[in-house]
Amino acid sequence: MITMKKTVTLLAAVFLISSVFAQAPQKMSYQAVIRNTSNTLITSTPVGMKISILKGSTTGTPVYIETQTPSTNANGLVSLEIGTGTIVTGTFAGINWATGPYFIKTETDPTGGTAYTIAGTNELMSVPYALFSANGATGAQGIQGIQGLTGATGATGSQGLTGATGTFQSGTVAGQMQYWNGTAWVTVTPGTTGQNLTNCNGVPTWTTGGACPPSTPNVTNATTGKIWMDRNLGASQVATSSTDAASYGDLYQWGRAADGHQIRTSGTTATLSAIDQPGHGNFITINSGNYDWRSPENANLWQGVNGANNPCPSGYRLPTYTELDAERGSWGTSNAAGAFASALKLPVSGARAYFNGSFNAVDAGGGYWSSTFSGSSSRVLSFDSSTAFMNTAYLAYGFSVRCIKD
């Protein structure tokens, strides 16, 4: 037989009412005096207990069951908090106390195990208010309270992290300016007295009388009859010398679009791309296999004016091996000096290594891609101070591009 101590249960309800303005505590205090079948108090002993919350009647459906192993005191009194035991089924927080009545069924094993031999069921005559209110309807909106006093100013926060280094570069001569082309700062060479600074197709340009130059400045080789862009892709001006850095322009990996990787300050990644457009602006490095930034390789990139990933302006494309070699054959000397003295004024813009993205031969040699695919490589016009020839290079290299009119 289990004897409920109603006064203690009432005290527990009063405690829960005091918490109504906080979150309702998901537990309920419970006390009982444990006697054995001989009506003898079981004192100072661990007892096994199974507590069930039944809905509707003493034999109703259990909505929550838990087990605990509390110890009786010297008077045979056991105290526990329903809702904190080992859950068998249901959740204490999930009980909708507004849809009662509810009954507490306790089963006890005086030996501390789970062979429950003592059982009793009692109706919860009143549900603790804090638990009932958690399931009750929302009350009407209260009136707006008065504005509280302004709090004291908080302490100054810690110093934030140092920002990344900017990409805006210092000038080298008086009158230089820079503009943002969408991916990088580009230097505008100083104009001359009497010129006007004009916005030509989104690019600040020094002009005479405000007349913008052709949208794609070009030059014709009188020997071959071919029309070319007058500068490298990405360059801000025609080369004024073989080592004019403003005329070097960008360094492209073969077959890639102008996605930002070609800019000389772009980052690197060793992750190969499985598609024609990697979706980022990093220079892709590789030191094994076929040394291509794309896996598997695609030999159909950069083929013609409408070819996939053609980085040239409208109406222009990458030259073929034959067209580049014909230009080389028209030079007065077969070296860097001849390249600059030619109609194309090709500078020694250097290259970018396929294995780590470092720069090679800048101010010393030039490499210019063709669209011609050869094995797992492409043909390249290469030259330095002593020679010029058509070479073969891995597709992950970074070389200059000089576009030819289709």
Write the layout of secondary structure elements.
Blueprint: E1 2-4, H1 6-17, E2 28-34, E3 48-55, E4 61-68, E5 77-82, E6 86-89, E7 102-109, E8 118-123, H2 129-135, E9 177-180, E10 185-188, E11 196-200, E12 203-207, E13 218-220, E14 227-229, E15 252-253, E16 268-269, E17 283-284, E18 316-317, H3 321-329, H4 336-341, E19 351-352, E20 359-360, E21 366-374, E22 377-383, E23 388-394, E24 398-399, E25 404-405
Structure description:
- 8% of the residues lie in helices and 28% in strands.
- It is mostly beta strands.
- It has 3 domains: 2-134, Sandwich (Immunoglobulin-like), CATH 2.60.40; 171-213, no CATH class; 216-405, no CATH class.
- A 5-stranded antiparallel β-sheet has the order 6-4-3-7-8, with no helix packed on it. The chain has a 3-stranded antiparallel β-sheet with strand order 1-2-5.
- The chain is elongated, with a radius of gyration of 42 Å.
- It starts with a strand and ends with a strand.
- Mean pLDDT is 87; it is low at 1-22.
